[in-house]
Amino acid sequence: MNEDRLYERIAEILEEARAQVVRTVNTAMVHAYWLIGREIVHVEQGGAARAGYGDEVIKHLAQRLTRQYGKGWSVSSLKRMRQFFQVFPKGSAIGSTALSQSAAPAQIGSAAQTESGAAAFPPLLSWSHYLVLLRVRDDAARAFYEVEAARENWSTRELERQVGALLYDRLRRSRDQEGVKALTNGQDVATASDVIKDPFVLEFLDLGEHPHFHERDLE
After folding, report:
1. What angle do CA 173, 179, 185 make, to 5 degrees?
2. Could you give the 3-state DSSP secondary structure of residue 113?
3. Cα distance between residue 31 and residue 38, in whole Å
4. Which positions ≥6 away from 31 have C-beta within 8 Å?
5. What are the distances in angstroms from CA 93 to CA 35, 40, 108, 145, 180?
6. Which of 142, 161, 135, 189 lies closest to 22 in space, CA to CA?
7. CB of 85 within 8 A of CB of 71?
8. Where are the beta strands (DSSP E) in the chain?
9. If you ran DSSP here, which 8-state letter would residue 98 be given?
10. What range does the domain containing 162 cover?
11. For residues 147 and 94, what is the distance between their CA atoms, to the nearest angstrom?
12. Strand partners, 189
């Protein structure tokens, strides 16, 4: 084996290892936040009927979690987790009957329930991706962007760009759907390094407040 081939093999091993880390972190974060959102919704539904009860629960919860776990547990963050469960009560739209004709590969994921009770989500999509998807109000459009982001491995920035460009609406109105989709060529693809440096990931791993973790240390 010459040096070039040796280098290529080692690079392949490192890239696969990094990709595995990304999939693991993404899955853990998204599942955890979905479960947290579910718990908050269930407590609100079983609690007092007075106005503002849910916001009061979240406020107290945010204070306690911040004392224990640091940044990342603000009132707004917990409300987004609650919204996440409300928008995706059965998990990812990928693999559902409504999307079975959209050519989403089986390996992307499915909406089956896991043993832990958390709905499944595609490991290629991070919490940052879902924060973008939560801003899409139309259910069909949101499902479309979720499928495309997972299938095409869009970065969060690319997903935001396609949502902002109204790709779903343009496709729905166009007779030349393949031509419109071709405009996404040259898209910004997510990499392992991008995910590892994501501030949401650093907060989830409790690395966000450690000054000795510089960007060069994460590369």
Report:
1. 120
2. strand
3. 10
4. 114, 116, 118, 121
5. 17, 22, 11, 10, 23
6. 189
7. no
8. none
9. G
10. 3-218
11. 6
12. 154
- The whole-number pLDDT of residue 202 equals 54
Provide the residue type at 52 as one letter: G
Q: How does pLDDT run across 146-168, given as a tens digit for each residue?
A: 988 988 889 899 999 999 988 88
Residue 58 tokens, joined: 């979240």
Q: What is the DSSP letter of 107?
A: G
Q: How far is it between the farthest Cα atoms of the chain?
A: 73
Distance CA 131, CA 118 (A): 18
Residue 143 CA to residue 124 CA, distance in Å, equals 15
Please give the DSSP secondary-structure letter assigned to residue 50: S
Structure tokens at 81: 């987790």
Q: Considering only CA atoms, which of 71, 185, 193, 189 is closest in space to residue 129?
A: 189
Number of H helices and E strands in the chain, helices first, is: 11, 0
Q: CA-CA distance, 9 to 67, in Å (whole number)?
A: 45
Torsion sign (Cα): 125, 129, 130, 136: negative
Lowest mean pLDDT segment, chosen from 127-131, 153-157, 204-208: 204-208
pTM of the model: 0.70
Domains contained in the chain, number = 1
Average the pLDDT over each of 89-98, 119-128, 188-197 and give the range with the smallest value.
188-197
